[in-house]
Amino acid sequence: MSSTQLYDTIGATYTQTRRTEPRIAARIWAALGEARTVLNVGAGTGSYEPSDRYVLAVEPSALMRSQRPADAPPCLAGTADSLPFDDQSFDAAMSVSSIHHWPDPIAGLREMRRVARRVVVFTHDTSDAGWLRRFWLTRDYLPEVADLITGRPAVTELAEAIGARLEPVTIPWDCVDGFFEAHWRRPEAYLEEDVRRGVSVWARVGPEAERRAVHDLRADLASGRWAERNRDLVDLDAAELGLRLLIA
Question: If you ran DSSP here, which 8-state letter would residue 192 be given?
Fold first, then answer.
């Protein structure tokens, strides 16, 4: 299933749980520097688009485009690897939590680099051999996630492709954007259907793995096993779970 088909299938309730987290937004917008014109690639419903600059969005999924707010910047149908713009048309190009869905991430990044003088991408690091153990949900309940990144370029390769530097982004414990790792200190959230439907990972691992993970997590929360395994998280205000900014 392509990313467009995926979001046309699961994206109907996306805006219920996926929204702009202001502390992460501040990092993204700071990375845009003085850019006044911004292209948002794989824009989804418009989260993280700065309101104080001219923004043009590109998004392949019609369902996601239909959920953009009425006052959101204009959004074109299109894909990252074939952007319909001249060289250096924008001060900056940004992409947030989208690149892992692109058929050819490096081609998409090079297109962003072609059409913009600055590139800012919010993504995640899967290059570390121990990445699966960073997050308790993948470590203890959903190891199938490892299969989703097989054959994908490491974040260091992505950075090298466009000469980008990498900056870590920590996740606040009360993050309001419900991406996969967002509820690291609020495990009960993963028992909620709406929360899971807003994250493509659950659809991609399949219903059997999802049912097992939810069942096991519910049991461990009830027994106190989750709390015992993860007692080091209770006092953390933010966690480093591999989220990264690529800035070129």
Answer: -
In CATH, the number for domain 3-247 is 3.40.50.150
Give the Cα separation of 132 and 142 in Å (integer).
Answer: 10
pLDDT (tens digit, 9 = 90+) per residue, 168-180? 999 999 999 999 9
Segments in the chain below pLDDT 70: 1-17, 128-129
**219: exposed, middle or buried (Cβ count in 10 Å: 0-12, 13-18, 19+):** exposed
Handedness of CA 55, 56, 58, 59 (dihedral sign): positive
Ranges of H-type helices in the chain = 3-10, 14-17, 22-31, 62-66, 105-115, 136, 145-148, 155-162, 193-197, 200-205, 207-223, 225-229
> How do the residues of the chain divide into helix, strand and coil, expressed in percent and rounded to 5?
45, 15, 40
From CA 236, how far away is CA 241, in angstroms rounded? 13
- Find the length of the chain: 248
State the pLDDT at residue 171: 97
Distance separating the N- and C-terminal Cα atoms of the chain: 31
Q: How far apart are CA 112 and CA 10, in angstroms?
A: 27
Centroid of chain to Cα 57 = 16
Q: Do the bridges between strand 165-168 and strand 116-124 make them parallel or antiparallel, or are there none, so unpaired?
A: unpaired
Tell me the pTM.
0.89
How do beta strands 90-96 and 116-124 pair? parallel
> Cα–Cα distance between 80 and 96 in angstroms, integer?
12
What ranges in 67-206 are assigned the alpha helix state H? 105-115, 136, 145-148, 155-162, 193-197, 200-205
